[in-house]
Amino acid sequence: MSDSHTNLGLTSKPLIHVHVYSRKPSLMDRQRDSPYFDSNESLVTIHYNPCLDSSAQHISPDDRVLWTPCPTDAGKGALTVMMTSGLTVVNVHVPYDNQAATLLLSNIPWPENSNGFVCVGDMNRYSKGLMKMIAEVTDDKRGTHQLYPIKTEKPTRVGLEHDGTHNKTFIDYFVISASLKGLVNYPAIVFDDIGDISDHYPILLEFKDQ
């Protein structure tokens, strides 16, 4: 994918930041054998830096890449990329358990200034609950009162109930800084026509050029 993008007029390859960690999802039907052969999961953040030439490495030496594991749930964590432009992107998989989620969220580098900030991933809860947690773990002192959830108009996850019916929920969204709010092209787009390849739908949020 990165190679194909360089043919579209880009001067360098998009930068790829990856963290692989062990996680094996549990099954609702405990009597079935697990279909998973690979217990690894990857959090991947890709961004384009026009300041690098085509021979540059995938990781810019001036970018800071942090992995924040959940202290009580090894299968959850956050990949943070602090870019040279000042933009910070947090790619997070938040635990279902509120106590574990609080521990993870308290270790994420939330913004302390007006630089651009984007948090996205598998939040595993509605936006109101997540924003309350963020305010609690930061004590509302480090700019989190300037963070806004950008929600979708369509459900983003399809779960299967015990009776075989689908349960659609809105638990995937973006959390962005106030400095980016005026640049958002609303609404966030949900790709709900991907077939049965995941219990989550891909979502897309576009920003206008500054």
Using brief descriptors, characterize the structure shown:
about 210 residues, two-stranded antiparallel sheet, 4 helices, mainly beta, Deoxyribonuclease I, Chain A, single chain, about 15% helix, 12 strands, globular
Question: Would you summarize the structure shown here?
Answer:
This protein has 210 residues and is mostly beta strands. It has four helices and twelve strands.
Q: Quick one: biggest sheet?
A: 6 strands, mixed
Mean pLDDT value: 82
What is the strand arrangement across the widest sheet?
A: 3-4-5-6-10-7
Overall radius of gyration = 18 Å
Rough shape?
globular
CATH class: Alpha Beta
CATH architecture: 4-Layer Sandwich
- Quickly give the structural class: mainly beta
Q: What fraction of the residues are assigned to beta strands by DSSP?
A: 25-35%
Q: Which topology does CATH recognise?
A: Deoxyribonuclease I, Chain A
Order of helices and strands: HEEEEEHEHEEEEHEE
Organism: Rotaria magnacalcarata
Protein name: Endonuclease/exonuclease/phosphatase domain-containing protein
